[in-house]
Each structure stands twice: as structure tokens, then as C-alpha cells.
Design brief:
The protein is mainly beta and 170 residues long. The chain has helices spanning 27-31, 59-63, 89-93, 106-109; strands spanning 15-18, 22-25, 36-43, 49-58, 74-79, 84-88, 96-101, 104-105, 115-117, 130-136. A hairpin with a 2-residue loop joins strand 7 and strand 8. The structure holds the ligand Nc1nc2c(c(=O)[nH]1)N[C@H]1C(S)=C(S)[C@@H](COP(=O)(O)O)O[C@H]1N2 and molybdenum atom. Molybdenum atom binds at residues 44-45, 123-124, 152. Residues 141-170 are annotated as: Disordered.
């Protein structure tokens, strides 16, 4: 929900959107979209998890500017330095293109202005410094991880994609 106290930072570079059409969105266009605040849990490969209030623009609102084909199965989210995560479309479209956390712009705390966050997206797939979002339609049986770059597999799972188990139950 929109919150008048949340600050919409200007973006130093625009974000490329690839759907039925191909376009870019800059900070001014982003600021015209609805700002929402959502609690998202980040689950790290180490098993650590933390929930924080992120704010930003719904991924659905952003990507609709490029028109999302109905047959889309995944979103490919890429950072400015080429890190890539491939996330199931239902999970990803429920996410935020986050601009801030705990009421503060992301750039106040780190060296990036944007971050993809979504309930159900693993920590390694919460891409920082988003430069490009593409709607993908993968064939049944295609491996979404084959589209990823830099997303480290869980060291304990030998290439399987089981969620990490927390170290303690507290
Ligand atoms: N662009 C980009 N985003 C990234 C990464 C990265 O290397 N580059 N690392 C991921 C991984 S592996 C994790 S666990 C989290 C770490 O987020 P944190 O720094 O907030 O703990 O960011 C994710 N997002
Ligand atoms: Mo990580």
C-alpha cells in the first residue's frame, strides 16, 4: 500500500523490459507507478532467514509496460553486472522491484538502488541492481537454472534444489 513517507529515489540507470514488446523504464516512469510495502522473507543458502519490510513497485506493474505474454512461465531477472536469476512467473509477478527497505532507500545502505524480492524466491535469486527483466516461456521439462548466471547452488544439496534447512528452530 502506498505510504506518503516512503521515498522514491531517482534511478541512475533505466531498466530494460522484455515481454511482448521491448522497452525501458527510468526512475521518473517508475515513480509514477504504485509504491507498495511488503514483508518478504529472504532465505539464504546458509539457512539464515530474515523478514523485512521492503518497498517498491510491483513487478507486475513494471513488466506490464512491456506486455507480459500469457504463456510466460518464468521471469529472467538480470543485474547490471550480468548476475541472472530465473524465477517461476507466479512467484516473480507477486514480487517487488524494491527501491527501499525499512523505510530507507536501498542506496543508503548498499551499493545498489534496486533489488528484486518476492515471497518464495530464494535469497540468491533476490537480484540486486536490476538492469533487465525478461518474460520467458520455457518448454515443459526445460531447466530454468540453465538460464541463470552466478546463482550459487546450495553447497549441501549437490545440485538438487531442495530449500535450505535452518540451523536452529528459533
Ligand atoms: N546482483 C546480484 N544480486 C545478488 C547476488 C549477486 O552476487 N549479485 N548474490 C545473491 C545471493 S547469493 C544472496 S545470498 C543475496 C545476499 O543478499 P544480502 O547481501 O542482502 O545478504 O543476494 C543475492 N543477490
Ligand atoms: Mo548467497
Amino acid at each position: 500500500m502506498a505510504d506518503g513517507d516512503l521515498h522514491v529515489p531517482s534511478l541512475s540507470s533505466s531498466i530494460r523490459l522484455v515481454g511482448e514488446e521491448e522497452t525501458t523504464i527510468d526512475g521518473a516512469a517508475l515513480a509514477a507507478l504504485p509504491l507498495e510495502e511488503r514483508e518478504c522473507e529472504i532465505v539464504c543458502a546458509t539457512g539464515d532467514r530474515y523478514t523485512e519490510p521492503w518497498y517498491g513497485v510491483p513487478v507486475l506493474e513494471v513488466l506490464e509496460r512491456a506486455s507480459v505474454p500469457p504463456e510466460t512461465t518464468h521471469l529472467l531477472v538480470e543485474s547490471a553486472d550480468g548476475y541472472r536469476a530465473c524465477v517461476a512467473v507466479d512467484t516473480a509477478l507477486e514480487g517487488l522491484l524494491a527501491l527501499g527497505k525499512n523505510g530507507r532507500p536501498l542506496a543508503d545502505a548498499g551499493d545498489y538502488e534496486t533489488r528484486f524480492v518476492a515471497v518464495g524466491a530464494d535469497g540468491p535469486r533476490t537480484v540486486k541492481d536490476v538492469a533487465r527483466i525478461e518474460a520467458l516461456t520455457l518448454e515443459p521439462g526445460a531447466d530454468p537454472e540453465a538460464y541463470e548466471i552466478g546463482v550459487a547452488p546450495d553447497p549441501d544439496s549437490e545440485g538438487e534444489s531442495d530449500p535450505p534447512v535452518p540451523d536452529d528452530a528459533s
